[in-house]
Amino acid sequence: MNAVFVKDLSKTYKNGKKALDNFSVSIKENDIFSLLGENGSGKSTLINILTTYLMPDCGEIEILGKNIIDYPHEIRKIISCVSQNVSIDLHLSLYENLIFQSRLYGIEKNKAVRKIQKLIEIFSLEEFTEKRVATYSGGIKRRLDIAMGMISEPKILFLDEPTVALDTESRKSVWQIIKNIKNEYGTTVFMTTHYLEEAEKLSDTICIMKDGKNIAYGTSEDLKKYLKQNLIKVTLKEKENIKKFLKIISSENFIKNTETVKNTITMNVENSSENIFTVGNILSANNIKYNLLSVSEPTIEDVYLSLVGKGRR
Amino acid sequence: METLNIFSRNIKWRFQNPVTIIMTIIQPLIWLLFYSNMAADISSSFILPGIIVLVMFSSAGNNGVANYYSKQNGSFYRIHISPVKKSSVVLGHVLDAEVFSFTEVLILILISFFMSVRISFSELFLMMPVIFATVFFISSFSYFLSLIIPSENIFYIFLNTFILPLFFMSTALFPYEKIPVQYKTAVNINPFTHVINSLRTIIMNQNNNYSEYLFSLMLMILLGVIMFIISVKKLKIYGKNL
């Protein structure tokens, strides 16, 4: 059974903005699913509909086989959502926050206490139980926020930009927590993110959204193939030669576009295995010294940028 | 249990932020002190019921403000998508407003004691149902407003636009007989006139006017129940019609 099944979902707000346009996707149980897209692409609208907050205009939605329009109350019992803004109550302690959340889901006190102990352990919150929540760092607040989302042991956990505004260390800690959630609880994780690296490292499946539409869906590897991109990377020894090299290759028809980062130039070409020799010849003929010349695999970032229409050139 | 959960969360915030209690009681208190001393023919006992209603406007009227903060930080959404009943959510907020308002009313009564106003326990007991029903109505209405008014600033403007006219267009400051004829209909239509009158009959020991007391009590219960149901219905569809 699919954890989430969405077919031809559309939503237009009263102000006329079309947020979702015949969007379809299906997510398997126990998968970590990432939704990528620019601001305004419809990610939050989709989460708001899937969590029963917003009503769609049309389309079919099933959460673990239950129709969301017919069974919103039943669905609320098996899902949980951690919104983009940390939503913990700063006037309550860590323990009180977790107890409050457990009562929202009608969890009996003894059971809640046992769950809280387990969550404190899994989320490494032991040393913070006695401290005032208001004094927590952003990363710890986010961990508590996700722990609150897990108190009801939901079948599906929605995470809206879970690592936004966190430092590198806190982000890695949240990544580990997301993996733990999948492994310890068997929860399906549906998350939106701006960090492509995050999507690539954590997700079983990825969906790229643009203007309310699903424009690419699959595993990270599937999406890379989807791009069918041939990349050649060259790192020049001297920075001064970059302009000269770019000028020379601008007349070569096999190069579709280029991107320059420091001394490294990445070229999107027609056939990387053949064109690499031509590039090597150009470099030698013009006496341009280089440290590295290689065929490069596209990253998920390349796929994303290509699909959402941000050309590299 | 659900209601108690929401209520205890709100009340913890309230008592950790006593400044909200102090700030909302200052204005009515100034009115009480000022009016009791300035108007020679008006006693503190006469003015107190109107000031009690003004306190209820300030405390219960602000009940919806918490929603704007919780919408900003995401806790409104977190509670909304949980399986908790919407009636429990609204009731939890209304009960918070009840405790807040009763605390303020008791402070007012204590202060008015030093202004020679004497209220016995039996009179206080008689006043409580009317106060409870009035706060229930105002706080339910305030909660409803917070669901339909998009921003906190407009919410405050709306409150300020209506609170003082409602206060002046009642018997809060003048006896009904002294109100000019052209305003009498408006004063009679104002439901809070009847609340003030019934509290006044209790405080000024005019206990023979039970019909006014029962009328104001029934009116506030009716308005409170209607407004509570409307708020719950609005909360149920909140977000769905955006």
Describe the structure.
The complex is a heterodimer of chains A (313) and B (242). Chain A is an alpha/beta fold. Chain A has helices spanning 43-50, 72-78, 94-104, 109-122, 138-150, 168-185, 196-202, 220-227, 241-249, 272-285, 300-307, and strands at 2-12, 18-28, 32-37, 58-63, 66-67, 79-82, 156-160, 188-193, 205-210, 213-218, 230-236, 255-261, 264-269, 290-296. Helices cover 37% and strands 29% of the residues of chain A. In chain A, the strands form 3 sheets. Chain A has a 6-stranded mixed beta sheet with strand order 6-7-8-3-9-10, sandwiched between helices. In chain A, helix 3 (94-104) packs across helix 4 (109-122), helix 5 runs parallel beside helix 6 and helix 8 packs across helix 11. Chain A is elongated, with a radius of gyration of 24 Å. Chain B is an all-alpha fold and 242 residues long. Chain B has helices at 2-16, 19-38, 44-61, 65-73, 75-80, 86-113, 121-148, 152-168, 181-189, 191-203, 210-236. The longest helix of chain B has 28 residues, at 86-113. The mean pLDDT of chain B is 89.
